[in-house]
Each structure stands twice: as structure tokens, then as C-alpha cells.
Design a protein that fits this description.
Layout (H helix, E strand, L loop, with lengths): L11 E6 L2 E8 L2 E11 L2 E9 L2 E5 L6 E17 L2 E6 L3 E4 L5 E5 L5 E9 H11 L7 H8 L6 E3 L3 H10 L7 H18 L1
Antiparallel strand pairs: 1-2, 2-3, 3-4, 4-10, 5-9, 6-7, 6-8, 6-9, 6-10, 8-11
Helix pairs in contact: 3-4
Length: 194
């Protein structure tokens, strides 16, 4: 599971069990939470709920990662390099390797709500194929397809991804884990075919 205490210096884990946890972030502009679930070995799903103007991140992945972020509501902006700026707003999907995920992340609407699926490439590729033997998706090829360099790729307002993620935001508690697995596989199949 990704360690979000490295994402923001102020992150604190205030609940954790069964491969899940809730991290709380605070600064003078507000607070946020990241609720994270381990879905497959090397694959996590996190829900991000922020009510703040900004947060400062010092996150640098310790392993090769592939992350897919969906913005449900709000807007998130950050400098992704010297001459590059990344932003997502409601309906957008951002795919990246977290190679430019440090610095100040601003929320000009003072809130951001969304979901993030992260893959530890060393573990996830193997575990997905062990659990789903017929999975036609090559995770490494998918990462290369969308993350050719260090910068994130943003897909604006895709109706298919909106459908996939809208169902992830309203899952009954008793079926969360198996449903998360189905939706993550559906997303990978869609991105592979896109």
C-alpha cells in the first residue's frame, strides 16, 4: 500500500485494519481525508476528500507506480515541471507515474473529491494475472501507452470512465472489496481498448 505520510508531511493515519486505512491531512486552510483500500496485492483504491485551498506534497514513489486519478468534484492544479502545469476538474481522468508529484497542490474551489487507483508495477502485474488468468491486459504496456514521459496524461470528460467511477462512489459496504475488483478490471479493459 502507498504510504501517504510521505505524500503530505501533515498526513496522519487515524484508523487502519484489514488492508485499509484513513489518513487525515490538515493545514491552516482546512482538512482532507484519504480512505485507502488494498484491493489486490500491489493494487490500491483510495477516495480523496479535501476541503482546503492547498496542500504541500513531498511524495516520491519508492517503486515504479502507475496511478489513475478520477476527479468527481472540484479542481486540482499543480506544477508538473518547469514549463508544465497539470490540472483536473470534474469528470477528468489523470494517468501518471507520480514522477512530478511534489510541490504545492492547489484547489482553487477549496475542495476536491475523487478516487485514485494505484498499481505497484513490480507486484500488481504479477498478482492481477495470478488472480485473473485470462486477463488480456498487460499492465506494463498500459503504463507505457499513457505515461510515455514524466508528465501526467489527462483525459477530459470521458462518458465511459464517468460510468465506471460513478459506481465506485456508491458501493454498499458488504460488497465493497469484490466490487472494487470488478470495477478496476473494467477500467483496465477500457483503457487497454481505448
Amino acid at each position: 500500500m502507498l504510504d501517504f505520510t510521505k505524500k503530505c508531511g501533515e498526513a496522519t493515519l487515524f484508523m487502519g485494519n484489514d488492508g485499509s486505512g484513513v489518513y487525515q491531512l490538515r493545514n491552516e486552510t482546512g482538512e482532507g481525508t484519504i480512505t485507502i483500500y488494498e484491493v489486490f496485492p500491489g493494487v490500491t483504491l483510495a477516495y480523496n476528500d479535501f476541503h482546503m485551498r492547498y496542500y504541500d506534497s513531498s511524495f516520491r514513489p519508492e517503486t515504479d507506480v502507475f496511478c489513475i486519478d478520477h476527479c468527481r468534484e472540484g479542481r486540482l492544479e499543480y506544477a508538473a515541471g518547469d514549463d508544465a502545469y497539470s490540472y483536473v476538474e470534474a469528470g477528468d481522468l489523470k494517468l501518471d507515474r507520480r514522477l512530478t508529484h511534489t510541490g504545492r497542490f492547489e484547489m482553487p474551489l477549496s475542495h476536491y473529491h475523487g478516487a485514485m487507483i494505484s498499481f505497484d508495477m513490480k507486484v500488481a502485474g504479477r498478482s492481477l494475472h495470478e488472480q485473473i488468468r485470462d486477463l488480456p491486459v498487460d499492465l506494463t504496456a498500459l503504463q507505457k501507452k499513457y505515461c510515455r514521459d514524466i508528465y501526467p496524461m489527462v483525459l477530459h470528460g470521458s462518458p465511459a470512465t464517468l460510468h465506471i467511477f460513478s459506481e465506485l462512489y456508491a458501493v454498499p459496504e458488504k460488497i465493497k472489496r469484490p466490487y472494487f475488483k470488478i470495477k478496476i478490471l473494467e477500467l483496465l479493459l477500457y483503457l487497454d481498448a481505448l
